[in-house]
Amino acid sequence: MKWLRTVATELFGLFVDDGRLAILALVWIVVAALLLPNLPAGSLWPGLILFAGLALILIDSVTRTAQRLRKTPP
Amino acid sequence: MPSRSPESATIMTLAHLGPTVIAAFFASLVEFVEALTIILAVGSVRGWRSALGGTAAALALLLAIVALLGPLLTRIPLETIQLVVGALLVLFGMRWLRKAILRAAGVIPLHDETRAFDDEIKHMRGLPRRSGNWDGIAFGTTFQITMLEGIEVVFIVIAIGAGGVGLLLPASLGALAALLLVTVVGIIVHRPLAKVPENPLKFVVGVLLSGFGTFWVGEGVGLSWPGGDWSILGLVAGFLVLALVLVSLCQSPAARPTQEVST
Predict the structure, then answer these.
(1) In A, residues 13-72, which contact B (CB 8 Å cutoff)?
(2) CA angle, B120 then B122 then B123, to 5°
(3) Residue B76: helix, strand or coil by DSSP?
(4) What is the pLDDT of residue A1?
(5) Choice between B262 and B122, residue whose per-residue pLDDT is larger
(6) b/e string for B214-232 if b means 16 or more Cβ within 10 A?
(7) Which of A28, A51, A57 should we substitute to test contact with B (largest number of B Cβ atoms within 10 Å)?
(8) What is the mean pLDDT of chain B?
(9) How many of the other CB atoms lie within 10 Å of CB of B262?
(10) What's the CA dihedral at B76, B81, B84, B89 to 10 degrees?
């Protein structure tokens, strides 16, 4: 059972390291799934908006972590 | 939800094939190198028979899982797979990319295979020896590490390969090539592959997987990408530029000497 728990924890850890990044990315994917298909097909905008949202989430996660770790050195 | 025509789905463009093989190869390479470090440490301290036995048992179980799950995937509609796998790839890819950016910027230390090897050797030496042909500790340790790293490889291959018709084979070949390379080099050098540039590899794989994931999510929700499959290259380029900018943004003057020392 302990081994199974380890595998489950490792599997969860495959996708979730920074919980905020994971939740924001999933929320953004749901929002994109609801809104973006209504934009004109073949246009550059839906794909660009999807990418921009994920890029902002990554920027937020990296910069926040960098600031936090610099404030509290090991 | 609009779907791709069978013709367009079966066309294997270079835009798909190249990144698929490269991403599967490099991502699997990183995982196999980590597993090799532990297997070498366990084998050299506790004996090779049990260490290799545990590794072989885990590989057999992984093959069984793949054989069981592989056919099930073909029964799920392509759009559903693309959306679910795309979302998982985004999470997985951005997690790797985030860590690789922070390591490249010197915010967190680089992973050290030699240190991991030495730590495992020390740990194994401290554990009691058991009489008999099989060493349960060695068997269990190599079984666990092979399963854990192997499950990651299986997920990576399925995630990269399941989004398009005919991509599972090139993704599997990429992973298989990485396994062969690590096995051969491991047998020859008998030391952890500390010179493998793990962070640059994770950086590249993170960029590729984030690009793939975004593309599959878009396909899954019914977006029509301008340029079709070639949009993958645009997304990969976008994540690469973003990651490089973030590395230079996070690289404070205080962090630069730390990075030089840790590399």
Answers:
(1) 14-18, 21-22, 25-26, 29, 32-33, 36-37, 41-44, 46-47, 50-51, 54-55, 57-59, 61-63, 65-66, 69-70
(2) 60
(3) coil
(4) 66
(5) B122
(6) bbbbbbbbbbbbeeebebb
(7) A51
(8) 82
(9) 14
(10) 140
Q: Do A55 and B152 touch (CB under 8 A)?
A: no
Which range is least confidently modeled, A57-71, B103-117, B240-254?
B103-117
Q: Which has the higher per-residue pLDDT, B69 or A17?
A: A17
The label of the residue with tokens 């990144």 reads: B19
Chain B residues 141-180 with CB within 8 Å of chain A:
144, 147-148, 151-152, 155
Three-state secondary-structure class, residue B216: helix
Cβ-count burial A21-39 (b if 16+ within 10 Å, e if not) = bbebbeebbeebbeebbee
Degrees, nearest 5: CA angle B93-B164-A15? 20
* C-alpha count within 13 angstroms, C-beta hemisphere, residue B223: 31
Q: HSE on the CB side for A16, CA within 13 Å?
A: 11
> What ranges in B11-47 are assigned the alpha helix state H?
14-46
Which residues does chain B have within 8 Å of residue A44's beta carbon, measured at their own beta carbons?
226
Tell me which amino acid residue A4 is. L
- Give the mean pLDDT of B156-169: 76
Task: Compare all CA atoms of chain B with the CA of A36 and give the residue at the minimum distance.
Answer: B223
> What pLDDT was estimated at residue A28?
96
Residues B11-34: tens digit of each pLDDT: 456 666 777 888 889 888 988 988
Residue written as token pair 């740990």: B123
Highest mean pLDDT among A52-61, B1-10, B212-221: A52-61
SS3 state of residue B234: helix
Q: Residue B130 has what pLDDT? A: 66
Q: Is it the case that residue B135 has pLDDT exceeding 60? A: yes
pLDDT range class, residue B1, cuts 50, 70, 90? very low
> Which chain B residue lies closest to A73 (C-alpha atoms)?
B107
| HSE, side-chain direction, 13 A CA sphere, residue B215 | 31
